[in-house]
Here is the input.
Amino acid sequence: MNESELQAFLDRSMTAIVATVGAKGGAHSVPVWYRFKAGSFRIWTDGSRQWVKNARRNPQVSVAVAEHEAPFAAVIARGKAEVEVDPPGMEDDIRGIVERYIPEGEVDAYIAQWAALRTIVRIEALQIRAWGRGY
Here is the structure.
């Protein structure tokens, strides 16, 4: 995929799988909603979740986004996670993430329901592998 194809693919409303390294060295993978902007994945989450704790301890993570139907395109990124509480631009990131997954008329209510969540995990994609047809 070229850059515009990559962005178009990641702009689709698919969940991503974020993989972190647990305290005992094992893999810990979770599905997340995300937004890909300026070369990084942004994820709005609860800062007390285990994967976030893992990312704080070891910021080396991977992210996978894949189609579940033909042609089975996918993106795998390796990167560095930065966990931020109340960062500048957080409201824009939250809205940008939620709008990808929730119907337009329900976005504000959904955000209000989760107003206590104040953590954004930004994963800078340092290496990306992508393909447009199955592997």
